[in-house]
Structure prediction request, 763 residues.
Amino acid sequence: MSTRTDTSRRSFLKVGALVATPAAAVALPAAALAEDGSKAALARLQDERAIEGLNREFLRAFNKGGAGNTAKLFANGNAPDLSARISRLALDDEPAQLSLAPDGATATASIACTVETAEDFEGSETLVQMARLQGNAAGIVTSRKQLAARYAKRADGWVLTEVAIA
Amino acid sequence: MAGEAYPDLPLFRIDWTALTDAQIGEKLDAVANAGPQCASQTDLSLAGTIMQIACDAGTTGNDGPSLSYRFLTGNRLLLSENGGAGVNAGYAALDLGELTFLAHLIPGTLRGFAVVVDNHTRLATVFELWFGGYDKRGREVMREVYQGYVHADGEAAPTKRHEFNNRLEGAAYHWQQDTGAATLDFYDSIAYTHWVELTRMDRSQGYCAPADYIEIGHGKYIYTRTECEFSGIFTVYAFDVNALEQVGLRLGFNAADELEFQAFRGTGEWLGQIAKFEDFGSTDGGPMLPRPGPGQTADVDATAKGARAVYRPMETYRTMTKAEVDAIVPDNTTVFGRAVGEGSGATGMAYHVESPSEALIGRDVRVEYDDGPVMEYEFSSVDELRYRKDGGSWITARYHAWEAIDGVFLFGHALSGEPNHDGHITVLDFEEGKATCYNGYLNTPYIANEAGCRHLFGRLVADGAPDPGDARHEYTLDMLGRCITYSYQPGLTSMHLYSTPNTTSWIIFTPERSAGLQWAGSGAQVKIRDGLYFLYWIEEACNGTLGTILLNMRTMHDIGIGYHCGTEGLSISPVSALLRHAGQFDLERFFTQQGEA
Prediction:
């Protein structure tokens, strides 16, 4: 039986989770407020969806190729400094705590997650090397963590600026 | 330096020429217009037809091509890729029932295609092939695999595809080709294969290579192997497991650096089916992509075109010179240096090692090896003995012993002062008065810190041991074709395949218990009793370890001793696993003589 955790937790992907965030928790861009309330809401919704998409992309890239594989999603092109022993991430069903800056240029999110940490095999025997190469581990430890992310809005869309797991 | 096409050397000992793209291109250009050679009548019925193949993304996610073939007279074709200009090439096509196999190069390039079309379903599998894609070994044929279909005017695109899966996993076939070549092909992994050359080479050694396994349907499959780390030759064939017929292509450079570009037909024989260990009903298969992960530091990119998981043991093998070996071993020899047993902190392969036996303490033993030394032993404690060789001085050494069945022990120790740093790993058989030793040594001709192994058979002289006369433990075919899984610790299980009397291949199971990466080395199989076998293998051109095991088929448990030299020195250490018998292939008739040194 696989010890892997299902990573396709669709509820994380649901727009509803963010839309349901209390209005007070989401500051609206000032420029948008000055115009029209519905346009501001639409802009906020678009930003939220874009950030959700970015989170999905981060998750896919990480679980496929580790932190190094996520570098392209970051503003500076550098991969986040996450433990190399983390073998898999799954984000929770709970709504993300997303906060957009008043100017709409940056955002932060805090997302509950499940982290799988692989325990390395001891030794350097051929079998051990081959097992590592194909992704085997001596064991998987699953723990509950919080993923904290920061985002920045560029002309071509949202990018990550920081990801930490604590 | 190129020599014979198939010299009398194991593939891992051949000094493969580092062919340049220019050298490769020159040889491809010489044959690209003519197309593949074929000893059988090729299928020319495609002449005058057009075939348009739409491909999905490949195994690595790269966009698949759109191939538009116009088949001209004879064996000429005109290919347009992705709507580009047409290119003329020679091709060979072979039919297999409703399948059409065709292959060709693209003149002026290092590329070509092999295509399998099911004319009934219009489904196609396309192999894009090219040389020069692996910078360390340009001769190694790269491949990207695309699934797709043949376009038909007025017909909707099929929704099904040929499928990578594990349906072939655990089977083996004997193939006899029209080229005269015969092989034993083992489909013993979802991502790797093992094969034995019966005609091109001495059949003593089997080899491993990455493979593709694709199901067409109705008992028809496609298999590929790329002889990575060796010649780099690529073989692909479509086959029918019920009709036992194959059609395919062999492309690449042999040891004489001659280009082999040959389409072939073959007939087969089923050699059996061993167990699979995935969840019942699971058909998940390859290909296995390279992946980063804990402990994996190689620069890998699973999205690069042609990427696949390839075990390249020489990339991680720190080889040493004789001077380096001789300098470090005398003061850095560790014999059973770590505690063993579950929970003791032993390394991964010693997890199931039981406590050493005390039953030899106080016993005096003399072993007279045929054409070998006379060894005398006094066992003074559970881990200390005195020995002398050929009547020389007594030397105190550390040892451990395990009693596999009543009166039969496996023990090992290092020999001091030997120029090649010998170790003896010996079965003492008090019941029959016999002893058999795998004598490991270093400073072999190829790599100084790679182990060699002498096989010593002899007579055991000790209180209560009978005189065996001329009888000795003997080489056996009992293990030939068997597959035994060895579970060393949670998450670390390998399976041995004894594909020849002198070959041990090992296959590592994935977390989903599919058979995955695989490699092989030379070895021997000696029978101690019915169901009790003394085996060894050497991880040649890999990490140089001599592995030995005394395998009890009745308890499905083993005890073994490894002999290894690295930059940290020489180590002699125990291994043990819990076993399962996965099955046995029917191979004996291919090996008329029992294994020998």
About this structure: Chain A touches chain B at residues 1-4, 64-66, 68-69, 84-85, 87, 118-139 (CB under 8 Å). The CA atoms of residues 25 and 99 of chain A lie 6 Å apart. Chain A has one domain: 10-165. DSSP finds five helices and five strands in chain A.
